[in-house]
């Protein structure tokens, strides 16, 4: 069977061939691609980047292609139509699998070839995410923290909410109305997809994690760094770091050595001079002020972008992992933490409850209720028995949910089913 993947991410293998840094996102696809190829599937993976040259490489049995776009990937690009014609003529795929509905390059393929057998995997859903983009921050605070960069680039908190909403309606909903087959993994994405297109065939398939997380040693309560919280990212509002700060404020007097360690850009970096003003985001300004207001300067560290091994070290060293987002489908960071055995706390939003059973495989709290988050953190810090219970049960649940062989077999079954169905 020949399958064409359309992705938003340049895979690490192609990145290396192009002399570029490997991406730190999209890890759930890499292992699955390798497993499918080893199973004998003929796989081609195509992505698009504006102003880059066409590139094609066959690496370890997989065909990787990079198409040069003429417009931003969030806009429909007519110049891709001719390129898609050549690719489909060369590959003649039995199935086209589009990963995610956030970017528009798959729509140009669907316009040129409306009758191929398509299936789309749901990642997030921008049309729904836009509802929660302010993440509990008041309009007064949003306006007070607008920066020059926000104004010039139009991608501050308000601008990004508008962009997410537009992308959801112009791109995402077009995908969902055009396609007959969807792959999802939570009740949340199922219900939203079915509301947009009640006739779509919904296929359930869990995602696999990055290779290193299956091979790693497990979290050990005796080896952790006491009273340390780890967050996998915090670069924009929906990731909810501001709510963690508010929660920690309530309990920092109990734990003077408490630390919040955050992967990603250093939000607290000083913005000096014109260059600083042109790079400082409004949300980052808000976080900087909040840290100072709550006197948490000595309690938070931004770690920069981390590779797989560095992420694993942070998970294993922390006392608790928190997924504090205002909206999520099923965050892979949560799965990574659970499969390593890290005690987890997560906000009760979107598809997260499909991954966490409160009191068994993690602790859940309502996103706005920072007092509940504070007490959940305190309970794990204070109660070794609870921490061990969440650790052990998290490993069992995540190991089943992210079982690579099962997920690969499920995906093959979906492909086989679609290949026998009518064209799109």
Automatic annotation (TrEMBL):
It comes from the Bacteria. The keyword DNA-binding does not apply. Keywords: Transferase. One of its GO terms (molecular function) is glycosyltransferase activity. It comes from Kriegella aquimaris. Signal peptide: none annotated. Residues 217-394 form the Glycosyl transferase family domain. This is Glycosyltransferase involved in cell wall bisynthesis.
């Amino acid at each position: 069977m020949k399958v064409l993947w359309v992705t938003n991410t340049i895979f690490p293998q192609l990145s290396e061939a192009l002399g570029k840094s490997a991406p730190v996102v999209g890890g759930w696809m890499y292992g699955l691609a390798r497993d499918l190829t080893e199973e004998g599937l003929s796989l081609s993976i195509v992505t698009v980047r504006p102003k880059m040259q066409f590139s094609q490489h066959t690496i370890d049995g997989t065909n990787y292609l990079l198409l040069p776009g003429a417009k931003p990937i969030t806009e429909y690009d007519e110049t891709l139509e001719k390129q898609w014609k050549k690719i489909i003529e060369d590959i003649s795929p039995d199935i086209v699998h589009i990963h995610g509905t956030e970017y528009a390059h798959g729509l140009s393929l669907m316009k040129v070839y409306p009758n191929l057998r398509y299936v789309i995997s749901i990642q997030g859903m921008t049309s729904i995410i836009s509802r929660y983009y302010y993440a509990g921050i008041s309009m007064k605070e949003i306006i007070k923290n607008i920066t020059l960069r926000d104004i010039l680039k139009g991608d501050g908190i308000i601008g990004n909410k508008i962009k997410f909403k537009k992308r959801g309606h112009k791109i995402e909903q077009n995908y969902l109305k055009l396609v007959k087959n969807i792959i999802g993994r939570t009740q949340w994405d199922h219900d939203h997809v079915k509301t947009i297109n009640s006739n779509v065939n919904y296929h359930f398939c869990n995602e696999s994690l990055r290779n290193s997380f299956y091979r790693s040693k497990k979290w050990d309560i005796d080896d952790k760094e006491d009273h340390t919280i780890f967050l996998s990212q915090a670069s924009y509002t929906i990731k909810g770091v501001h709510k963690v700060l508010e929660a920690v404020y309530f309990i920092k007097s109990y734990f003077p050595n408490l630390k919040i360690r955050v992967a990603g850009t250093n939000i607290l970096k000083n913005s000096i001079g014109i260059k600083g003003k042109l790079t400082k985001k409004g949300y980052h300004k808000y976080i900087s002020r909040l840290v100072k207001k709550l006197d948490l300067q000595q309690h938070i560290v931004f770690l920069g972008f981390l590779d797989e091994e560095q992420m694993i070290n942070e998970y294993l060293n922390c006392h608790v992992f928190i997924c504090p987002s205002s909206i999520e489908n099923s965050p892979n960071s949560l799965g990574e933490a659970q499969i390593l055995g890290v005690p987890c706390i997560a906000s009760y939003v979107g598809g997260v409850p499909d991954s966490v059973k409160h009191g068994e495989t993690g602790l859940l709290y309502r996103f706005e209720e920072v007092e509940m988050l504070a007490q959940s953190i305190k309970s794990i810090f204070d109660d070794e028995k609870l921490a061990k219970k969440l650790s052990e049960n998290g490993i069992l649940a995540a190991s089943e949910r992210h079982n690579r062989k099962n997920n690969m077999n499920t995906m093959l079954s979906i492909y086989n089913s679609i290949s026998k169905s009518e064209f799109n």
